[in-house]
Amino acid sequence: MLPPLPRPPSGALIRASVLELLVLAGHTLLYPTGLTQERRTVPGPPGPP
Q1: Domain hosting residue 18, numbered range
Q2: Three-state secondary structure call for residue 41
Q3: For 1-49, where are the alpha helices, taking DSSP H only?
Q4: What is d(CA 13, CA 26) in angstroms, rounded to the nearest whole number?
């Protein structure tokens, strides 16, 4: 006798997984290519004395 098949994933799980993959793909494409630099706080030059 075969074991019962697992339930298919819910729609919310599929939507969340697709969103995660889109975010990962966006970061993979933008940051390593240098098209968009990551935001970092850099102190500005000192003001006049």
Answers
A1: 12-37
A2: coil
A3: 11-33
A4: 20
Kindly list the distances between the CA atom of residue 36 and the CA atoms of 15, 39, 43, 48, in Å, as whole numbers in the listed order: 26, 9, 20, 32
For the record, the structure tokens of 27 come out as 């970061």
Give the number of domains in the chain. 1
**pLDDT tens, position by position, 3-46:** 888 888 899 999 999 999 999 998 888 777 666 666 666 666 67
Q: Assess contact for 23 and 30: CB atoms under 8 A.
A: no
**Angle at 25 (CA atoms; ends 21, 30), nearest 5 degrees:** 155
Q: What is the pTM of this model?
A: 0.54
Residue 45 lies in a domain: no
